[in-house]
Structures are given as C-alpha cells and as structure tokens.
Amino acid sequence: MCSAAVSRRALICGVSGQDGAYLAQILLAKGYEVWGTSRDAQKTALQGLKSLGILEQVRILSMSPADFRSVLQVISTVQPQEIYNLAGQSSVGLSFGQPRETVESIVIGTLNLLEAIRSVDPAIRFFNAGSSECFGDIAGGLAADENTPFRPRSPYAVAKAAATWQVAVHRESYALFACTGILFNHESPLRPERFVTRKIVTAAYRIAHGSKEKLTLGNINIHRDWGWAPDYVVAMWKMLNRDTPEDFVIATAQTQSLQGFVETVFDEAGLDWQEHVITDPSMLRPSDPIVSRGNPGKARALLEWQPIVYGQEVPRKMYYEESIVNQTDVGQQHV
User: Which residues are catalytic?
Assistant: First the structure.
C-alpha cells in the first residue's frame, strides 16, 4: 500500500456531510491539500467542518453533481489526484417521497464524475460511497460480502446499486482507478437529527434533562450493522491508496436491533426506555430490510482495516459525545 505524499490534492464531493467532514480531517492530518464541494458553498452551513475545527483549512466550491458542466469545471479547477464521491441524497426514507431527485443526484452525479475524470485526467483515483441498502433482505440473515447479489428495496438502494455498477463498468472499460466502498450503517455526533440514531440520542438527552416529550419511532425490530463514521473514512482512504482498484464491503460483522440501540442509549441516560418511547405504524416505510449485516473479511485482509468502535459502543459513544457537546455549548453561553 502506497503512502500519500504531502503535495497530494483531494476533492471531497459532499464535504458538508458526516463522512465528508471526518474524511477531510484525516486527509488534512496526512498532509493533503483538501478541497470540498456542496451545491451552494455560500449557503451551506458546513457545521461538521466547524465542529471539527477544520473549516478554514478546506477550500469550498459550489458544484451540482447532476450538471456535467459544473462537475467538469470543478475538477478542471482543482486538478485533484483523488476524488471522493460522498454527494447525493442520503436518506432512505426521503427517497420514497423524492425518487427522481434521489436517482438523479446519485446515479447521474456519479456518472458525471466518472466522465469528467476521463476528460480531465484518467489518472485521477475515484472513490464512490456505496450502501448496504443495495443488498436488501439477505436470506437467513447471513452477512453480505462483495459477491452477494443486490436486491434493492427502496429508490435510494436502486440508485446506489446503479452507481456501484456504473463505477465497475468505467473501471473495466476505461482502466480507471475507480472503486466503491459498500458502506454499512455508520454513525457519529455529526449525523443530522433526521437520521434515526441521532434522533434517539438527542431525544434521550433532552428527556434526561427535564423534557417531557415522547420519542416516536417506527419499526424497532429491524437489525443493523452499526459502525463508527471516523473508522469508515479511514477505509475510504485505504481503498484509494493501494495498487489496484477493487470494491470492498465496509462493516463490523455485528448487528443489533433498533430496540437494542434505544435501550443502550436510554440506559446511558439513566432512563427506562419503555417509559419514554412509543411506536407509530404510520412511520413504517413501504419496504425495509429486517436484518442487515456485512462481512468485512476482504477489507480486513487486503486493506488491513478493521473497525475500532462497534456494537453497543456505538450508541454509548454517541450519547457520551452528545453530552460533551451540550455541556460545551452551555459553558460557552455562560462565558
């Protein structure tokens, strides 16, 4: 595995998200010059970069992934050696209400990046963020690996599957260094509250500090392979800094139910979750995989990557980080 040179330049498409912020952090630590894109650089909050204290170190440009001219202009301007595609609509639930926008932002966005690389510099290395949602329900709850067939069950999953296949086509047809990380669920304090894990954590914290609200959830019997976002961005970098481009499943190989996640978080808050959580059938998605588990054996063997935070440590760490952030905010208000 080769090492990154100090002069290396990376472009992170979708730098305003959870993964984009953590990836920017590790690339800066490795000596990269880091550029990032968002749809509107002037209006995007970039709260993740601010929270990590690295906003001033990342150069931000506006880019619409679905507009080829916009993509071509940014890549021509930056001239990166590495591009990380983390952009696109990222909510499974929202994809049912906005299927067209979801498909365009993910599929067309990925295709435009690949075609722009061919036009500007075919030597650019390209990472695409794939998703475990592509697998859908796996028979017998087995762990999915790189050879497991895709059976997407949402517009989001369909789009991610198509983008993964498109990356493979460009890699095989044009000899691009292009690969997809098939990422299982990974969390952090930088998750927006529209994601269920952060919704659980913030609600538990508020209730523990006096709120009388009830936390309303949909199906709490689903099982997910939850990892820690800062671990997963390391795998992204490792994938682009090896001799050959290949797709990898990035996961922890462990699952827990959403109910178990809730129990752990509320236990950390000193609460009985059953007194504060209600389920609402109207929040159920039209289709949702019941069990999702990944087999990261290939990543462990070829990337020498393995998760550091997994299992119940994920909800515990999320609640701990939430407490730290809130205590810091209160302290600043009293300065």
Answer: 131, 133, 156
